[in-house]
Design brief:
alpha/beta, disordered C terminus, 7-stranded parallel sheet, 13 strands, about 400 residues, about 45% helix
Length: about 400
């Protein structure tokens, strides 16, 4: 088969889909790629694999006029490419792609796959999200042959309310869990490197320092806990850095909060921590807590549709209301004062995350490409419902 992979920007293509494209090529398929790579070059691996890459001026903003230009560019590529499947990802590119492919599905039998990495509308989402994004996704679903969702809430909604020919649940793009399982690290030395006392109870988070990641709630919980032995390290960069520094100073916990910046040693940091904190407000399917679970860490997280697929309250860790300082403070205190609970949760996590392993996900996706939907449905639970 000849397959076209489409994302809005090259960062997404580089970060997530190299193993997927490599798998398809090893199966004998030709794969070309489309994205906006003006700001960030595509990984040279794609060229080494034999992919033809096309620059299309997608914008991440749905209101940008560049998207009109992108529509024309993509239409010419699809028209001349004789593709069997176009597989699109990310909201903007996926809307444009499905609109472009409408007539080619009828005339040439082109199949359109769309992986939704977390709808912008979900239980508890702002009404504006439902008013703007829901109608667009529902309309475009009728031009979708296989709609692939990565969490169970989105699966239920799409299955019950959208018009795609097939709806599937595949839990994410896959994580190479072997990178996190047998990591050798000098725990004391790593703690000295990041400025954390060797005898501290260390909370760790990873992610961009922005509003959605909600790191401030852990800092507030740390101040309320009032235990100088508990420290909090955050790996990531972003616009909220100065705010978080100021908040820690204001609350008197600046000596216990460590902003580590961008890191390439997350496996080592996970094995150095005692608990992984993930207070994010909304997620499609979060990667960083899965990586932490592979390292045997318990999780303290905000409850949302993607995170509750991963974290089982009372088994994997503790789920909290994302606005409740008290919830997070109580969860941290529970784990900080009972090492046995941490050990039991960590051991449970290393067993429970196997369905997110990269090989499992690639096998699942290959079945979808072959038209076998059996493997893609085996994780779904029938106990969820969506109400508008």
């Amino acid at each position: 088969m000849k397959i076209l992979y489409v994302t809005t920007i090259s960062l997404t293509m580089n970060s997530f889909f190299k193993p997927h494209i490599d798998m398809l090529i090893r199966e004998g398929h030709q794969v070309d790629i489309v994205c906006n790579y003006k700001d960030l070059a595509l990984d040279p691996l794609f060229g080494e694999l034999g992919c033809i890459s096309y620059q299309v001026d997608f914008s991440r903003s749905p209101f940008s006029m560049d998207n009109i230009k992108a529509y024309g560019q993509l239409k010419r590529i699809v028209e001349n490419g004789n593709y069997d499947i176009v597989h699109c990802h990310t909201p903007n590119a996926s809307v444009i792609t499905r609109l472009v492919c409408r007539k080619f599905r009828k005339k040439k039998g082109l199949k359109v796959f769309y992986t939704a990495h977390g709808f912008h509308f979900y239980k508890g989402a702002p009404k504006l999200n439902w008013m703007v994004y829901y109608p667009v996704e529902k309309f475009c679903s009728r031009f979708t042959d296989k709609l692939i969702t990565i969490n169970q809430e989105d699966y239920t909604l799409a299955k019950n309310q959208f018009k795609a020919k097939e709806v599937h649940y595949v839990p994410g793009v896959g994580i190479d869990l072997s990178k996190f399982e047998n990591v050798q690290v000098d725990r004391s030395a790593k703690r000295r490197e990041i400025g954390v006392p060797e005898d501290a109870f260390l909370l760790l988070s990873a992610g961009e320092l922005n509003e959605n990641k909600n790191h401030q709630i852990i800092i507030r919980a740390l101040a309320k806990l009032n235990n100088p032995k508990v420290h909090y390290a955050i790996a990531g960069e972003g616009e909220k850095k100065e705010y978080l520094i100021g908040l820690a100073n204001e609350l008197g916990v600046s000596n216990q909060v460590h902003l580590l910046g961008y890191r390439k040693d997350m496996p080592e940091l996970n094995h150095t921590a005692d608990v992984f904190c993930f207070p994010s407000i909304r997620e499609g399917l979060p990667v960083s807590p899965i990586e932490a679970m592979a390292c045997g860490l318990p999780i303290v997280a905000a409850e949302n549709r993607g995170t509750r697929d991963v974290v089982e309250n009372g088994k994997s860790g503790v789920l909290c209301c994302y606005t409740s300082v008290d919830d997070f403070e109580e969860a941290i205190e529970l784990l900080a004062t009972d090492p046995k609970i941490c050990i039991h949760m960590g051991q449970y996590n290393m067993r429970s995350i196997l369905k997110y392993d990269l090989k499992t996900i690639l096998d699942n996706m290959l079945e979808l490409y072959k038209g076998d939907e059996g493997g893609a449905k085996k994780y779904y639970k029938e106990d969820l419902s969506i109400q508008l």
